Write a sequence for this structure.
């Protein structure tokens, strides 16, 4: 019984040491514990722990009885001393084994939680990196759009200045056209006046010719 308890305690200590350091053996130990905690494994572990607890209580009760007998008798029996040491060693080993089992269970639980949190953090980092990349791409795209807008604004300003220059040219051309129209109207009026004067002069010449011809005919008679 004592040899078996020693083996159990040392095995549990070795398992805790293996779980405390990141080695390939730790993965095997964790996989084994994962399988033990599935199906009927927890029930078996609880049954063994309950049995060990009952044996521990029995050893403690036996030590209390031996100690009470010592108090009543007032003398130390060598047999009782051997039994006391045996029960004390058994109780110590069984209590240590139960404590180490609890430590193994908690350590396994914390390692699993740490793995889950690491995976969650890695996924979060990847997602955050994706967001950062998308944000960087969005910033670059926005910057490109802003540059394009600035270029279009410059082109718009150039077109507006060109339109203003064209408007000035059109206004100048319209002013020239109005001036030319007025000048042509003046020329037409002057032309009409000249035609009228020419017609008057022709009429006067015709009258003079007629009067001269009449006077010449009178002289001949």
């Amino acid at each position: 019984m004592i040899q078996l308890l020693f083996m159990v305690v040392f095995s549990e200590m070795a398992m805790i040491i293996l779980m405390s350091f990141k080695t390939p053996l730790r993965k095997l130990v964790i996989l084994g514990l994962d399988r033990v905690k599935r199906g009927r494994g927890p029930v078996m572990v609880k049954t063994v722990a309950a049995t060990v607890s009952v044996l521990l209580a029995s050893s403690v009760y036996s030590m209390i009885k031996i100690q009470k007998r010592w108090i009543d008798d007032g003398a130390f029996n060598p047999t009782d001393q051997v039994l006391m040491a045996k029960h004390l060693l058994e109780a110590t080993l069984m209590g240590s084994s139960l404590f180490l089992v609890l430590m193994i269970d908690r350590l396994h639980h914390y390692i699993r939680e740490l793995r889950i949190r690491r995976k969650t953090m890695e996924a979060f980092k990847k997602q955050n990196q994706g967001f950062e990349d998308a944000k960087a791409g969005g910033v670059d795209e926005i910057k490109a759009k802003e540059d394009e807008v600035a270029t279009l604004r410059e082109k718009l300003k150039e077109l507006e200045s060109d339109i203003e220059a064209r408007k000035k040219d059109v206004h100048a051309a319209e002013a020239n056209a109005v001036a030319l129209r007025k000048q042509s109207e003046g020329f037409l009026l002057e032309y009409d006046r000249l035609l009228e004067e020419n017609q008057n002069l022709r009429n006067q010449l015709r009258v003079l010719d007629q009067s001269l011809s009449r006077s010449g005919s009178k002289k001949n008679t």
About this structure: The longest helix spans residues 78-220. The mean pLDDT is 82.
